[in-house]
Design goal:
With about 450 residues, the chain is mostly helical. The chain has 22 helices and no strands. Its main location: membrane.
């Protein structure tokens, strides 16, 4: 009898394990595509400025390029409301399978765009429109993937599994950085190949990768937690939520505001540390571009390992403690770090960026699991998507633009550091006011 009983139980466990692996892989790929695109846009920003923007002033063209990047983020809250509503009403699977096609399709088309020399002002207009479509669809990707993973993962390992999502973003940035580094090293920064076709390659890759991810998601079932909620609704054990966004705004405004505050540091920190600093070193510090790219690549490799470590530690010590630690760290260390970056010493810059990466991973590796544990199942996708994307729309996409503008306006190379300190202080207040739900069954939140 025991062997027969074990034989009966093992197949479901094996099937559950295989399903969880497929959820992990599909969640990883979806975010990888999104952030590989963002990395490519950032690391090829000077080339994109040359290809798409009018005028002969490189600084103005670069500002315009980052302005397109920032403006596209205005679609984030709109996309968050749409995908959050659909994810809570029609299921996590439906939202994720639809969003990946739209996101990867828009990214692919960016790689096909005509240049300013070909069509004039239509070129930057088309670039902005496609970035807005990409941003609209991507607003459901991070929140949906994290929610999907959290609702599949064991409660005592939720932090570790959810850290796959930020790890995939860092991997996308790493591959974008390595791609740009190799291309610049082989072809030269201003070569005809780079300006004509080289910058297009990473955007074109989104097409096939998006189709693979869509196929994987089509063959998954919705999460057990969401399926349980639907079953309870069918059995009249709970009220049906017909308008998740309205319910979120009416019943959970305080939780939403606190979550938004917690996301602010992640939004600014992620873009400032991982995408703006390479440009800061090259344009402001006048540091060698090849060495700056090498430092970024090294930091991203270490960052991915730190992410999983932070997710695992958050399962042991709780999300709130981790997020407060990150806030305090940025308040205390950001300004000294920026002063040290001006040393132009390779090892000093590397150690400073590694320290900032470590602080950021304490936040980044914990935030996705924290947000999934903050909202109940019927509005979890909406709450996560709105708080995360509002913070990114207002503070994330504009981080590079604001940093450059602050330096231009004040003449002070340390101005971006003060901006980050202010954001970190606001996030610290939000985290002090938050509640701890680590390890709880998501159906009970």
């Amino acid at each position: 009898m025991p062997p027969q009983s074990e034989a009966v139980q093992n197949p479901p466990q094996e099937a559950q394990s295989k399903t969880l692996k497929r959820v992990v892989v599909s969640s990883f790929l979806g975010n990888f595509i999104e952030w590989f695109d963002y990395a490519s846009y950032s690391y090829f920003a000077t080339v994109i400025a040359l290809v798409f923007m009018p005028g002969d002033n490189p600084t103005v063209a670069l500002l315009e390029t980052f302005a397109v990047f920032a403006l596209s983020f205005l679609m984030r809250p709109i996309g968050a409301v749409f995908w959050g509503n659909m994810g809570d009403k029609k299921g996590r699977k439906w939202a994720l399978t639809a969003s990946i096609l739209l996101m990867s399709g828009a990214t692919f088309l960016i790689g096909c765009l005509p240049t300013y020399a070909m069509v004039g002002l239509l070129a930057p207009v088309l670039l902005l429109l496609l970035r807005m479509v990409q941003s609209f669809s991507a607003s459901g990707e991070y929140a949906g993937a994290a929610t999907f993973l959290a609702e599949y993962a064991p409660a005592n390992k939720r932090g570790l599994y959810c850290s796959v999502v930020p790890a995939s973003t860092a991997t996308g940035l790493l591959c974008g950085s390595m791609f740009a580094t190799v291309m610049y090293a082989v072809c030269g920064h201003d070569s005809a190949f780079v300006t004509d076709w080289g910058w297009r390659i990473p955007f074109l890759l989104a097409g096939p990768l998006g189709l693979v991810t869509h196929y994987m998601r089509e063959h998954l079932s919705d999460s057990p937690v969401y399926a349980k909620m639907q079953s309870d609704l069918e059995n009249k054990k709970g009220p049906a939520v017909k308008a998740p966004f309205r319910t979120l705004m009416k019943k959970y405004p305080r939780v939403l505001i606190i979550s938004f505050g917690a996301c602010m540091l992640n939004a600014v920190g992620f873009y400032a540390v991982l995408t703006y600093l390479p440009n800061y070193l090259i344009d402001t510090v006048q540091y060698d571009s090849a060495k700056a790219s090498m430092i970024t690549t090294i930091c991203l490799v270490v960052y991915i390992a730190f992410i999983f470590f932070s997710g695992h530690i958050s399962d042991k010590f709780g999300r709130k403690k981790m997020l407060i630690t990150a806030c305090v760290g940025f308040v205390v260390l950001t300004i000294p770090a920026f002063y040290l970056l001006s040393s132009k010493d390779f090892m000093v810059i590397l150690l400073v960026e590694l320290a900032m990466c470590f602080l950021l991973t304490i936040n980044d590796g914990t935030l996705s699991s924290y947000l999934t544990e903050t909202f109940p199942t019927d509005v979890r996708y909406s709450g996560f998507a709105l708080s995360f994307n509002m913070a990114n729309a207002l503070f994330g996409g504009s981080a590079s633009f604001i940093s450059i503008a602050l330096i231009e306006a004040t003449g002070n190379a340390i101005a971006p550091a003060w901006y980050m300190v202010g954001i970190s202080a606001v996030a610290l207040v939000a985290m002090i006011l938050s509640h701890e739900h680590s390890g709880k069954d998501l159906s009970e939140i």
